[in-house]
């Protein structure tokens, strides 16, 4: 006999509650709900981002490049090489050596010492100097290869006062050491000595005489054409 099985009301209600109740844990159910809500709102978010990206941006061109390009350079801070010459405005001594010749010297004053003579430049005066005549021999170098002349060759300094502080000696084409005897005599006169070849000695005298004055610096120069034993041969 067919018939519907009637269940107690309490049992039917229990089945209905089972169907409507989720079997997921509370946290998983909440995340599932959030995911579904995000999926629903995704088209709205995409439209919002698209609208933001479509907005135009306006920029202002930089003026710094144009200003630097049109700026006029200021050259007032540059140093002129002529300003570095501290002796440029100092007058050159009249006894400064302009040229060293084979048999003599040409001075700034226009005086020419020639004929194989040396030059003695002291206190603004120029003298023809022949130190080899004191010994009577055409020799200025001793057996040890040192420059040596008799004390009488510097007799002018015996009567000169005040004496120069420095004596620059040019010994000819090549430099030579000074003999101890000659150095001792010049030291007793209160002068320091600097030995150079004649060309460099003339340049050194010109510089120091311009800087310190002709009263402090003197020069004794042998012609560059001097040959030991024969003198200057033309």
Automatic annotation (TrEMBL):
It comes from Trichoderma breve. One of its GO terms (biological process) is mitochondrial respiratory chain complex I assembly. It comes from the Eukaryota. Coiled coil: none annotated. GO terms for cellular component: mitochondrial inner membrane. InterPro entries: MTH938-like_sf, NDUFAF3/AAMDC. This is NADH dehydrogenase [ubiquinone] 1 alpha subcomplex assembly factor 3. It holds the Pfam family DUF498.
């Amino acid at each position: 006999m067919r018939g519907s099985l009637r269940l107690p009301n309490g049992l039917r209600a229990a089945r209905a509650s089972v169907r409507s109740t989720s079997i997921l844990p509370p946290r998983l159910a909440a995340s599932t709900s959030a995911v579904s809500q995000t999926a629903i709102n995704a088209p709205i978010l995409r439209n919002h981002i698209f609208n933001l990206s479509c907005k135009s941006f306006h920029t202002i061109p930089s003026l710094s490049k144009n200003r630097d390009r049109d700026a006029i350079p200021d050259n007032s801070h540059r140093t002129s090489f002529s300003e570095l010459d501290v002796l440029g405005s100092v007058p050159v001594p009249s006894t400064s050596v302009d040229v060293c010749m084979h048999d003599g010297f040409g001075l700034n004053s226009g005086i020419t010492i020639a004929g194989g003579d040396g030059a003695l430049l002291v206190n603004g005066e120029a003298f023809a100097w022949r130190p080899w005549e004191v010994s009577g021999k055409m020799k200025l170098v001793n057996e040890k290869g040192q420059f040596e002349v008799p004390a009488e060759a510097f007799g002018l300094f015996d009567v000169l006062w005040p004496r120069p502080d420095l004596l620059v000696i040019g010994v000819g084409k090549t430099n030579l050491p000074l003999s101890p005897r000659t150095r001792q005599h010049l030291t007793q006169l209160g002068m320091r000595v600097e030995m150079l070849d004649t060309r460099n000695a003339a340049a050194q005298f010109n510089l120091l005489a311009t800087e310190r004055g002709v009263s402090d610096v003197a020069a004794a120069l042998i012609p560059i054409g001097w040959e030991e034993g024969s003198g200057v041969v033309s």
